[in-house]
Amino acid sequence: MSDPNQPQQPGPTSPGPPPPQPPYGQQPPQYGPPQYGAPQYPPPGQPPYGGAPQYPQQPGYPPPGQPYGSPPPPAYPYASWWSRVGAYLLDRIVVPLPGYLLAGLGAFIAFKDSSSVTTTYSGDYYYDSDTELTNVNGVGVAIMVAGILLALALLVWNMVFRQGNTGQTLGKKWLSISVVREADGRPLGPGMALVRWLLLWILGDLCFLNFLWPLWDPRHRCWHDMLVTSVVIKGAVTAPQ
């Protein structure tokens, strides 16, 4: 039995409730005198207290909301099929016309006084003939060859160099259309313009459907346009800045 005059020793007490915790991301309240000079706001570039952390954009990844993969090609004011046909005829007939006329004049001079002699050989079991031109004017032949070379030079200059550097042949310039790279809207350059021209001749000779394909293609392209990734648009090419 304990002595009532003896002082009582404090017994074990149960722990009280834990102090309230601040929301996630917030700093606990500071007690005591304010700390002068201490930052009261998060450092620059950090999210506000309680906000979601921000991470820098990693290189090679698209911005938020943009799907992965290459961006779609830009939308152009595509040239009509009729304007393309008109430019083709102008470039094929009108531009090299001086060469055609010179070649025709040379052919007239070369063969206007010529005559043909046909020799026939026959026997019991065979029959053959040989035709030979006589009195052919050599000057006329030289003029005819010069005209052909002039027409070819005009075609190469127009289709390769002029179109490659400016996006327009003379026929396309007269009808206000241009051929450009689909990726960036710039001229093809002489090298790719030459490839496109050769493909136009090859595919056009193999199948006439190449020239009709722009009628139902959404970007009004022929097959040679698809192979070199070019499009024909309305207007002139904007000069690079």
Describe this protein with a few key phrases.
alpha+beta, 37% helix, two-stranded antiparallel ribbon, 241 residues, 7 helices, single chain
Fraction of residues in β-strands: 5-15%
Distance between the termini: 105 Å
Oligomer: single chain
- Category by helix and strand content: alpha+beta
Percentage of residues in helical conformation: 25-40%
Describe the main β-sheet briefly: 2 strands, antiparallel
- Poorly predicted runs: none
The H-and-E topology, N to C, reads as: HHEEHHEHHHE
Strand order of the largest sheet: 1-2
Rg:
43 Å
The number of distinct β-strands equals 4
Mean pLDDT: 78
Total number of helices: 7
**Outline type:** elongated
